[in-house]
Every structure is written in C-alpha cells, then in structure tokens.
Amino acid sequence: MKDLRLASTPRSLYSDKRQNGRILVIGGSSRFHGAPVLVSNAAYLTLAAMRVGAGYAVTCVPKSILSPVRKLSPNLIVRPLSGENLNSRDLQELKGEAQRADCIVIGPGLGRSRATVRTVARLIAYCLKLEKRLLIDADAILAVRSLRGRLGRNVLLTPNDREFHMLSRAGLADREMRIDAVKKLASRLGANVLLKGHVTVISDGRRVKLVESRTATLATMGTGDVLSGIIGGYMTRNGNAFVSAVAGAYLQVKIGDLLYKEKGYHAIATDVLDYIPRILKKYDRTTG
C-alpha cells in the first residue's frame, strides 16, 4: 500500500478542474476504437486523474471513429483528428493540445502505417523538447526506434513482450533475463520502462521494481490499455514517472484480486474502472 500512498497527491479545496491536472490521450484508428477510451476512463477514475488527479481529460481520435467513441462515455471530451488514421495533417493541432497538457498518453490502437509512425515520432520529439510527461504505449513504441538521444526521466514506455523485443532484441526467457533487459533498456534510453506481464518489471535504469499478479483474471484484452490510463493519471498529478508506474501496476494487481473473488475469470477490461475508487478512496486528502 505504500506505493499507492507515495503516488497520491492531495487536492486543494479551492482548486478547479484544470488545476487538478490535464491529460491528453491520443489513440485509435478506423480499426481500433475502444483502446483510447479505456485509457481516458482509467485516467478519469484514478486517484491521479479525476478522483484525485487529472481534472481535465482530452481524447483525440480519428474523425472516422469520433461518434462511437463519444457514445462510449458522456464524461469524455473527444476531439477529432483529420482522417481514418493519425497523420501529418494532425500534427499542428496535437502540438497545441500537448502544450496545454500536463501529461500525454500516446499509442493505444493507433495502428502502424508509415504515415502514423512518422507523425508519432515527430510529436514525441516535440513533447520531449517541451519536457512534457509522456507515456508511450502500444503502437507508438514503434516510433521510438527512429528517435535519437535519450528520452528523459519524464518519459515512460509500457511495452508488452513483443513490443519490448522490437526495441531491445533482448531475450525474455526467464525472470532474471527480463529484469536485466528492462534495466538495460531504461538506462540506454534514459527513461522509465514498464514491461507488462504476470510479473511486471519496472525500471528507471537504476532502480528495479517487480509487481507480481496473483491471478490471471486480468489476462484479457484491454487491461493493458487501462493500466496505461491509470499510470497516466498518476503522472498527471505527481510528475514522477517511476513512482506512477509502480503505483499503477500495484493498483491493477489489487483490482485483479477483487475481481477474481467476485467474477473469477469472467472479468473484462471495463470492470477495472469501477473498482478503482474502492481502493483509492482511502488515500484522498484535501488541503486548504
């Protein structure tokens, strides 16, 4: 529980929504419309997001899926991109949104077309120049290969095994290999890396944290996207990518325990959203 307490930040009694942090989520394509919404809702419900974190969440998706995304939740502010997939025509508008955001989550469901990957790389480079807190997930991880230099301590990558291997070419056959590979990649990139799995490995290149699941309840599609939303929510408020990653991974494990008791192996990703406040409410603090 100390990891959740460490990541928690108090909310001022006199604050407004923008003072409680603004998160920008960029995702989706004509093929994948659910992933970016799950991320926004996770950020909306986490302690570091709408519960005790980001008071303002903006989701940017291609206009081809704008209507179904808006229908999925009345709590979301959804902004359209120009076409069926993210492309260079969207870059200027996204730069403006990034300037206003405290944290940017980019990647879920974007797809891997050349135009999208090139645009993501340019947007990430812009965010790095602004020293923004940045969570790079899923398809956006492909763009990291074209970036030069170190990413910085404000950046977190959240790959699965396949995405991690694409970046590092390291073997992941056992726990020790996974720990060593994550630490080395984080050190090389000068960033934070969270390798998803039954045992989630998190490193900033020096420190390493392991968060082990006790059930397979959340071994289902969409839960990785929700995890990125939880962590992005924490990053929006406390500004520490490593602390946020550890807290987010631990929170999801605790939620998995609760879901297993109530639903067994019949939970889905959206179930996680309803359980976030049950755990985080005890960490609520108010300042004058």
Describe the structure.
With 288 residues, the chain is of the alpha/beta class. The protein has a single domain, classed as UDP-N-acetylmuramoyl-L-alanine:D-glutamate ligase. The chain is 45% helix and 17% strand. It contains 11 helices and 11 strands. The protein has helices at 2-7, 34-45, 66-72, 91-100, 114-129, 141-144, 161-168, 175-189, 223-238, 241-263, 269-280; strands at 11-12, 22-26, 56-62, 77-81, 103-106, 133-137, 155-158, 192-195, 199-203, 208-212, 286-287. The strands form 2 sheets. It has a 9-stranded mixed β-sheet, sandwiched between helices. It has a two-stranded parallel sheet with strand order 1-11. The longest helix is centred in the last third of the chain and has 23 residues, at 241-263. It starts with a helix and ends with a strand.
- Shape from CA axes? globular
CATH architecture: 3-Layer(aba) Sandwich
Highest-level CATH class: Alpha Beta
Mind telling me the C-alpha Rg? 17 Å
Regions with pLDDT < 50 over 5+ consecutive residues?
A: 41-49
Structural class computed from helices and strand pairing: alpha/beta
- What's the domain count? 1
Give the SSE order as H and E letters: HEEHEHEHEHEHEHHEEEHHHE
Got a strand count? 11
Individual helix count: 11
| CATH topology-level fold name | UDP-N-acetylmuramoyl-L-alanine:D-glutamate ligase
What's the helical proportion of residues? 40-55%
What fraction strand? 15-25%
Overall mean pLDDT: 87
Q: What's the CATH superfamily, by name?
A: Ribokinase
